[in-house]
Design goal:
Structural class: alpha+beta
Protein name: IclR family transcriptional regulator
GO biological process, one term: negative regulation of DNA-templated transcription
Pfam families: HTH_IclR, IclR_C
Strand content: 15-25%
Largest sheet: 6 strands, antiparallel
GO molecular function, one term: DNA binding
CATH topology of the largest domain: Beta-Lactamase
Organism: Arthrobacter sunyaminii
Length: about 240
């Protein structure tokens, strides 16, 4: 990951630390993966990661991999709002109204994907996923989106015991959206599309979900365009807040 001239601040150590934090945006990362993602020398990456960990800007998971630290959550809270969640409300309401189905935004947190925003279908049979719900990263179209653009090692790890295959994820990358039929729960279908952060990494997934009887066995054919549009709106909103 080279720092472009426009992205560089002129303070080298800060720029390199920012590269490490950007690389951790996608989830738990080994030292080797950090080196590959940043293009920095291994000793430099290790020194920066340890220094950032001292200030709780970086942490370690139970497998020893580097993750974004708890101090970042505290700082984000102090800033007053989570930009993704703030932007998600009206986008999810519009998506729900356009499709007639419940809509959600998921983020990956370790081995889970967590619903951070939702707009429920007001009446009739629906797939209810309250904010804060933890779901598996091994099934569902949102999980496919959150995994499809990971690096090779994370991809292989994520596919272990997953309900979807490498071929499915290749299709997600090619199309730019995912669908599932009964993967997470029998009788439930979903369509999802990726949300990218300012660095271009996939940081969340926008989804709609509901009964297969209503979404049909090809839900992407009906709803992929509007779901992808909602994801693009959130991506653009995040880009603007970073400018």
């Amino acid at each position: 990951m080279d720092i472009t001239e426009s992205a560089a601040s002129g303070v080298g150590v800060i720029d390199k630390a920012a590269m490490v934090l950007d690389a951790l945006e996608a989830g738990p990362t080994t030292l080797a993966q950090l080196v590959a993602a940043t293009g920095l020398a291994r000793p430099t990456v290790h020194r920066l990661a340890v220094a950032l960990a001292h200030h709780r800007l970086v942490g370690r998971d139970i497998q020893g991999r580097f993750v974004l630290g708890g101090r970042l959550v505290e700082l984000a809270s102090a800033a007053g709002e989570d930009r993704l969640i703030a932007a998600a409300g009206p986008v999810l309401l519009a998506l729900r109204d356009a499709t007639g189905e419940s809509s959600q935004v998921f983020r990956r947190q370790g081995e889970w994907r967590v619903c951070v925003a939702s707009a429920e279908r007001p009446i009739g049979l629906r797939d209810t996923i309250p904010v804060g719900t933890q779901l598996s990263m091994k099934a569902g179209s949102a999980a496919q989106c959150l995994l499809a653009w990971e690096d090779h090692d994370r991809l292989l790890e994520g596919l272990h015991n997953a309900r979807f295959t490498p071929t499915v994820l290749a299709g997600v990358r090619r199309r730019g959206w995912a669908q599932s039929l009964g993967e997470r729960e029998p009788g439930v279908a979903s369509v999802s599309a990726p949300v990218r952060g300012p660095s271009g990494r996939v940081i969340a997934a926008v989804s709609i979900s509901g009964p297969i009887e209503r979404l049909t066995r090809q839900p992407g054919r009906i709803h992929a365009e509007v779901v992808a549009k909602a994801a693009a709106q959130l991506t653009e909103a995040l880009r603007k807040t970073a400018d």
